Structures are given as structure tokens and as C-alpha cells.
Amino acid sequence: MAQWSGIDTGLIKGISGLVIPEPTGEARTFSPGTTIAIGKQEGQLHQHLSQDTTALSGGRYQLWSMASDSPLYFKKVVSNNYQQYWGITTDGKLYYLHLQNNFSSFGTAITWTQYGTDTDWLDVGAGQYHVMLIKAGVLYGIGYNSNGQYGSGSTSYYTVPTVIGSFTDWVKVDCGQHTTCAIREVNGVGKLYVAGRNSSYGTGLGTQSGNTVTLTEITGTTDVTSVSAGYNGYLFIDDGAVYGAGYNNANAMGFATTGTRQTPAVTTITSGATHVAYGYARCLAIANGALYTAGYGIGNFYWVDGGSHTSGWEFDAGYDFTGIQSDGVRPNSYVGMMEKGGKHYLFSQVLHGYILNDQTTYKSGVSTDAIEDWTIWSDAGVTVDSVTMASGYGNNIVFITFSS
Amino acid sequence: MKYYVEIASPMTLDEQWMDPNSPYMLFTYNERDAQECIFDSQGRLFASYDTFEVPEGETFTYKVLPLNSPLETIVLQPGEYGVRPVDLEQLNPSVSQLI
Lengths: 404, 99
Hints:
heterodimer; A: mainly beta; 5-stranded mixed sheet; 4-stranded antiparallel sheet; 2 helices; 31 strands; B: mainly beta; 3-stranded antiparallel sheet; two-stranded antiparallel ribbon; 1 helix; 9 strands; elongated
């Protein structure tokens, strides 16, 4: 689709006067030090550009303005199925942007709105209908909780962030479709807890029936430093090794063999791992600076090397990968950043939600859509501060923060 | 307590309601689409929802962080919370009686 052609080639270039072509061909120039979001929702491209409230022409694009005059440097942005976006900035502030007001007592907001004034927000994760947050070590839940995904011990749910449990040492959280995975730091050691729907052994607790409504520790770990939850499963890093539990469609977890893992088991990455990102039919990991991939390669929907890695992890060496993130619900949406030769690169693979369930639509819909293939956006002396992605039910937004 | 109510269409499943006696607690139907609902022999569609009950002799405490407000602690006394407003005014039929 033509409207994407200017994105992958022009997004990062000319940072002092960033130019993003519009569908009409009219160029728009932006200043450095801004947060940009690009992505698509129901087939439409979204751009989120600071300090600009003018709607783009043509009706296919939407432009969201920033609530603040100052640039927002998000370290993580997530969304649930209701297009409720939550973002935490690098200075610990929490913002929301809600295009629907489900499970919210504070309505819709088409611009980013700061949630209170606190600066001690640590992490945020979103499932299909729920969102989990960590503030100063305290875990909060908001939204749907019918599967006990809060881990609060009940299935009651709330319209505002509600304290979950009594621990005050939570440091990281991520959500699957109807699950929550969170890490406590106890005496300097990371402990992993899970809650929510057990379907397909998605909680890794040895059962696939019912729900686990209380956050339950995964025992036998040494020091859990990272976790990424996806559709009915999760990957985590324990003492440098990557472990997986739950649904393992097409060996999307990087094991040497296929099959669902009822409880956590080590993958073929046994050391050096720093990041993991698990979606549905594929996953990413960074170990010793190399990017590892596993899982499906379907149609146009290949990995960066054009392959399908269904027999364990394979990797792309030569780059210093510094970050990755996956959508917790949608199967095949990832963003990442890497550095090579002093330059920063971004890569993305963003698929429009449920399209994967309709292979015909999928194949015809993405064949010319550059951003839905792996794309490496080379820079022009730009420092990328962060890249994060919010992806819900039928919408994928990539947020890129950069400085000149 | 579980309630079964007749709904006009699957769109009704998006309905949400709150109980002023249990602030910030949200209630919805258990079913997310028509396939999960119950049809009776007349083709009527029934959905269910659960209220939140605090047993006698106990309380239920939760802490919320509303927008632009400090952390608030709410204590619920024994009782039933989240009855759909319209159901408060009429006897609730059980689904077994309807089918």
C-alpha cells in the first residue's frame, strides 16, 4: 500500500526536519525530540506526533496530539482490546490514551493524559481485556478479571487501578491474553509469579482447566530477570537461560522439540539471554547481543532472514541488539532496536491482529505492506532512545522516541 | 449469587453496571458472545452474571487509585453487591424455570 512507502524509508531520516509523506503526497516536517507512533488500526495508519493537532487528510490516517508540550519518552506502551493505551515514561510517569472507555471511570481520551502526578511507575502490561501496573513495587490491576488474571484471589474487577495483594517488591509485569506474569525482587533475586486462565497450560502450573486466581510462584528458579507473556504461554529468563511454558504452536518457544510444556522447561538458549518476547506463533530472544528467533514463517510473514524456525532457536549475528518487545496477545507483532557500527537500527514486524486467522486476507493484504514484513530502518546519525509497541485487538502502534 | 436474565440481543452482553455501595467495582455478564448464552425452547436468549457477596461476620477490603486522587481504602460490609439495577425491582427467575 502506497501510504506505507514513505514510512520505512523516511521515518528516521532527516531527523532535524523529519519528513513523513502523507497519502496526498504533502510532506509534514517534525522536530527532533518527539515521540512518534506509527501503526495501523483496522487497516488504517496511525501517527502520533507531538505538538500537532491537525488531522491528516484523506480519512485513512489519524493524528493524535500529545497532552504535554514536552516530549514524552515512553519506555513502554501497551494496549488492551479496547484501544486503551497505557504508557510509562522514562521518568516514571504514567499516561493513558483511551479510545474506548470500557472498564474506565475516567472516560475516553484521544490525547495522552497523565494519570496523577506520581513519578514512581515502574512497569505496565496489557492482556486482551486487562491491564496490570507496578507503582513503587505495588502491583495494580484494572479491567476484566473473569479469569482471575489480576491474581487477586477473586474474579472481581474494577474501573480504576486496584492494589493486588500485599507485596511491595514487584519489579516487572507482562500479560498474556488472559494471564499475568510478574516478577518480585526478593533479597536481590527475581521470583516469577503467574495467574489467570490455565487453558493450554498457559500458566505453566501443570493444569489446563479452570483459572488460577491468585498469583502463584513458579518454584525452582534461580534468578528471574525478564518475562514475556503471550497467548496461553510465556517465556522468561532465569539465570541467563530462556525457559518457556504453555502453548507451543509450531515450536514458537524455541524448544528443540514441539509440544506444549505443562510446566516451565529450558529452551535451547541456556546462557547469555537478556531479553525475550513471546507472542503466539513465534518469539524473539536476545542473547549475547544476537537476535534469536523461533516459530512460524508463513507466506510473506517470514523472519528477518526469510526463514521459518520451527526446530529451535536460530539467530542473526553481527548486530548488538538492545531491546525487543512483542505483543502479548496478537501472534506476530514485534519491534526491536539494535546498534551496529555506531548506528542505531530499528526493525519491526507488525501484523494486523486477527488477520492471521484468515490466511487469504492476510496474504493478499500484506504483500506490499512494507511494515508488515521485517523492516530495518537505517538511521542518519540518529540516536534512538526507545522503541515500544502497543498492540491490541486489531490495532498495532509502534512508538519510537529519538533525539537528534 | 448467580443470576440469569433474558437479554434482547447479543449486543446486550456489552452492558456494564456499577453498584454505588461497592465503588469502582464493575459488573458485566459472564458471557462474551451469543454462543456462550442459553437459548430456551422459545428461542429466548439468557445471559448470566455473578454478584459479589461478603459473608456474614466478614468484611472485604480493597484499595484503589482513582485518577488525581490518593490511594483509597474501601471496606465492604456483609451483603450482596452488584445486583443489576433492574433486577432489584423484580423477582429473579432461575433459568431452569424458564426452559
